[in-house]
Amino acid sequence: MFTGIDDVDWASLRHAHGSAEDVPGWLRALASADATEREAALDSMYGVVHHRGKVYDSTLASVPFLLRLAAHEEVPDRGCLVELLVSVGAESGDTRAREAVRAGAEVFTSLAGDPDAGVRRAAAGAVVRFLDDPPRVLALLRLRAAAERDDLVLPALTEALGLFIRRCPGHAPDAVELLAAQSAPPWAPTPRLAALGQLALHAPGRRNAELVPTAVRLLRERSARRAGTPGRPGDDTFVTRIRRLRPSDEEGARLLRTLHTALGDRVGERVDLLEGQLGSPDPMDRCNAVWMTAALYRALRPGSEGPIALVGHQLHAEQDWLRDAAVSVLTDLCALAAPAADDLHALVRSRPDLWTLRRERNAPTLGGPLKALVRSGDSRAVPVLAHILAGPYAPAGLGSEIAFLGRAAAPLAAELRHRLGRITLDSPAAGHLAAPLLTALGAIGDAEAAPEVLRLLSGAPDGLGARDRIAGQVIGTLDAFGAAGPAVPLLRSLLTTRHASMAAGALWSVDGDAGAVLPVLRGELARDAADARIAAAGQLGRLGPAGREALPELLATTSSERVRERTAAAAALWHVGGDPDPVLPVFRAAWSAHPGERGPIARCLTAMGAAAAPLRDLVRAELESVRRHTAVAHGDGAHGGGVADDEALLTACRTLLAEEGSAAYASGPGGGPLRD
Predict the structure, then answer these.
(1) How far is it, in rounded angstroms, from Cα 400 to Cα 201?
(2) How many CB atoms lie within 10 A of CB 493?
(3) Is residue 217 helix, strand or coil?
(4) Contacts for 97 with CB less than 8 Å, ≥ 6 apart
(5) How confident is the model at residue 231 (pLDDT cuts 50, 70, 90)?
(6) What is the pTM of this model?
(7) Chain-centroid distance, C-alpha 307
C-alpha cells in the first residue's frame, strides 16, 4: 500500500499549515488497527491536506496512496477513504485533482461490489464521477441494483443513477427506465422513495402524478420496517445537546430532501408533503420534517400556517431531542412561529426549569422555549421575563430578545432602566452590558430612560474605548423614543465624530434646526467612506424640503458604483425634492439586479404613494413570487433574519397596492389620472 511513499519529497510539498512532511504519517495511520488513530488521521486529511475543499500539491501526491488504501479489504473504514477521494476529485472543482483520481477509477468498479456496505455505498457515486465509459457505468449500476440487498446502499445506487442522467444525457433514457422500474413494486419502500425523488428531479416528464401521497405512504411503510428509534444517551453537555438536534435517520432526511428539491417552487405540494411527514407516527420522520419546515420557510413563502402549527405540536413529544429540534426551528422563524405560540406557552408554563439555562462558569442564557415564545412576539412571555428580571442574575443578552416584543414589553421598562443605571461606566464590560438593554428600551420606546441612556456617554470616563463603540447605539436609542431637550448638548458634541450623521438626524428630530445639521450631513456625503455617505443620505431624507441645498450632491450620488449608495441617495432625493423622475430609474434597476435592496426601496415607494405608480409591476410581481427575495439574494439557506426582512418587504408591498384604488394613488398632483 505504501510502496514509494518515502520516495516522495513530502517536505518540499505544502498543505494548509505549511510543509507536508507529516502527511506520510497520516496516510499510514489511515490503515491503523486503532480506531482513534484512524479518526485523527482522517481529520488531518480533511482539515489540513484538503482544508476547506482546497487542493494542494500534497493532496495530489496523496491520491495514489488513498486509492491503494481503499482497494485493500484489510483496511477498516474504507468507505470514508472513498468519500475523501470523491471530495478531492469531484467536489473540489480542481481539474488536476479530478484527473489524478480518474487515473485510478478502475478501483471504484471493484469497490462497487465490495463486501463492506459502506464501501459499496460510497463507490456508487465515484464510479459515475470518474469512470469515463457511460455504457459500462450504466451496466454496472444496473447489475449492482439487481444484486444489492442493503437498504442503506440501494438509495446511493439510485442517487448515482440520477447523477448519471445529469452527466450523461445521451444515455439518460435507459437510466430513466431503470429508475421508473425501481419506483414501483416489488421494490421496498426505501429504494422506491429514492427512485421517486430522482425521477422527479431529473426526469420531470416521468414524475408520478400522485407523488406526494405516494411518498407519504412509502415513508410510513419504511418507518414501520425500521427497528425502534435510536436512543440519545449521554450527559447534558453542549455537544450532546447539539447531537440531539440532529436527526439520527440521516437516510430518511436525505430521501425527503431530494423530493423537496425536486418539487422546487411547488409550494402547495411541498406543504402537503411536510404535513404528511409531521403527522407520521414515527418521531424520526417528524424530526426530519421539522428541519425541512425551517428550510421551506426560509426559501419560500408558503402562505400556509399548517406546517408551523404541526411543528408546535412536537413540543409535547416524549422525545427530548424532537422537542429541542422544534424549539430550535421555531426560534429561528421568529414572528412566523406565531401559529405555534399556544404550544410554546404551554411548554413554558409547565417547565420553569427551561426558562433559563446555566452552564458552569458562564452567565445564564434564556432557555429555548421562552426565547422562541418571545421572538414570536407573544406578550404572554412578559410575566415570565419579569420574574427572571427580578432575580439576581439576568441571562446574557436578554434585552436583545425582549426587543422582539416591542411595546408589548413596556411592563419591563422600569427594571431595564434600573439595570442600565447600575452599570459601572469604567468597567471594560460596560458597553457589552449596556447594548442589549439599549436595544430593548429603544424597541419599547421608553422615553423615561433618557437619563440612564445619556449617562452612558456623559458620565463615562474620557478615552474609554467602549464609550465610542456604544455611542451609535445610544444615539439610535434616544432617537427611537424621541430625544428631548437634555440630549441636545450631547448630540451636538457628537457632530464631529464618526457618528455625525446619526447625531445630526436625532438633533433634527429634537429642534428642527436645519442650519445646525445640514452642513454636517453635506460634509458626510462628500467623504470618501461609503458607509458615511450612505448614512448621510439616509438622514438627509429625514429633513425633507429643508435639505434642498443637498440636492446636487444627492443627485450625483445616484450615479455611484455602489448600489446601496445609489438607492439611499435616490430615496433621499424623493423625500427632499419630491421629484420621482430621477428616483424611479434607480429603484427599478436596483430592484431587479440587487434583491437585497428591495426592502428599503419598498419603504420609500410606500411613502411616495401615487408617484410610485410606474413601479407597480415590480411590486405585483414580488407579491406573486413564491420565492423569498432574501433567498434570491443569499441562497436558500437564508437565516431567520432574512425571513423577517422578506416579511417586512411583503408588508410594504401590500400596503402600497392597498392604496392603489384610493384617490391619492389614482390621481396625479394636478388631479388628473396617473398613467403607467
Answers:
(1) 42
(2) 13
(3) helix
(4) 55, 59, 60, 63, 88, 89
(5) very low
(6) 0.85
(7) 19
